[in-house]
Structure formats: C-alpha cells, structure tokens
Amino acid sequence: MRVCFYIDGFNLYHKIAELPDKSAPDKSLRWLNLYALAEKLRFRPDEQIEKVYYFSAYADWLPASKQRHKAYVRALEYSGVEVILGKFKLKAPRCNKCHKIYQTHEEKESDVNLALQVVQDAYEDKYDRAYIASADSDMIPAMRMVKAQFPHKEICAVFPPNLPAKRGSNQAIDIKNIVNRHSAITPLQISSCLFPVELRDQAGELIVRRPKEWR
Predict the structure, then answer these.
(1) What domain range includes position 78?
(2) Which pTM was predicted?
(3) In this model, does residue 38 exceed pLDDT 80?
C-alpha cells in the first residue's frame, strides 16, 4: 500500500513544547526526524512511504527563532521530507478587556497548503492511504472531498501528543467521525525519532547542526 504523510508543523511543534517533564521542558524533542516518525506511525510496516510533507512558516520578525527553524528545515530536507512554507500576516485586533488595539502575527497558508496537497495527490493517485498529522478541524473539508471522490482511498488522522481534553476534544471528535482510522503520536515515538546532534553527508561534510538552544 502506498502512503503519504502530511504534517502540520506548528500544530505538532506546540504540542511537543507542551509535553511535561519532571525537571524542565526537553527542547531536544523539537529536533524531530519526521521521516523516521512516519515510519513508526504506519499501521503496517510493509506500507510504502511515497512522500512525507511538512507544512510551516518562518517567523520573520524573530531572527533567532527563524534561524533555528531554518536549521530544522535543512535537516528535514536532507532526510527526504518535502517542505512547503506558508507565511505570517500582521494583525491588529482589539483587546476584549481593555479595548486597545495591539499587534500580533497570524500564521497563514499552511493549513490551506496541506489540504490542497492532500486533494491534489489524491487526484494524481500518489497514495492509497493518507496520514494527516493535525488536530485542526479545517482539514475536514479536504478529507470529505477525498472520501467522496475516491472511496477506495483511506484517510487516517494522526493526532499530536498532549492534545488537551477541553480544547482539543471537539475538533478531534469531528475528525474521528470523518476518517477511516486514527491514532495519536506518543512521547516515546518522538524521543526515539530524533536527529543526531550533527547531520553529515557520506563524505563527512557537515550539513546542519542542532541549534544549541534545543538541548
């Protein structure tokens, strides 16, 4: 069976950052090899991975964060993951309490890019089973479309770890009602799929090094 993985980068990143730790948050978990994780998430070990996609965006107004993110993207691309980047948009909402206008940034395009890729790959017959790693209910229309147009293809939901019961339960239930199968990423799967501190090519040349802040 041919399978593709579609990973919502920010959805997974923030849930990893929320994982509890007895002493301090383990930032090394952010140095996650998504291709290796996809291999562990397959329902059957004989499934053939055709593509692993990663959808995210750079925080241009945070230079240090952007540099860490770019290092991670280099590691992903070197491991065979296809990276599709969106962007952030500046917003100026009004505070509900003090009624003052403030500036913030909202990530745009990644969820749309993910949904479109799932549908496009279905029409191009690139997979028999699609794994969508996200708890975002915005994925539901794309899931419905694929299931309606290609009833022989399977849509599987992969929920990020540490999904809060109160905030995430309704979205998760809505997704579960659509998909063929579902599972959840475990902290053990994450900790067993980390990149080495340094990635080097066959000649020993350095490709990328884990950011020192992610220890």
Answers:
(1) 2-209
(2) 0.89
(3) yes
Q: What is the rounded CA–CA span in Å between residue 74 and residue 77? A: 5
Counting Cα atoms < 13 Å in the Cβ hemisphere of 84 gives: 20
Asked if residues 117 and 139 have their Cβ atoms less than 8 Å apart, the reply is no
User: Would 76 be classed as within a structural domain?
Assistant: yes
Residue 215 covered by a domain: no
What is the pLDDT at residue 108?
67
Q: What is the pLDDT of residues 44-81, one digit of tens each?
A: 999 999 999 999 999 988 999 999 999 999 999 999 99
CA distance 158 to 208: 28
From CA 178, how far away is CA 145, in angstroms rounded? 11
Lowest mean pLDDT among 58-72, 91-105, 151-165, 167-181: 91-105
| Coil, helix or strand at residue 37 | helix
- The Cα–Cα gap between 11 and 34 comes to 14
Tell me whether residue 82 is in a domain.
yes
Q: Return the CATH number at 128.
A: 3.40.50.1010
Among all chains, which residue has been given the structure tokens 């952030």? 88
Number of domains the chain contains: 1
Q: Which helix (H) or strand (E) holds 51?
A: strand 48-56
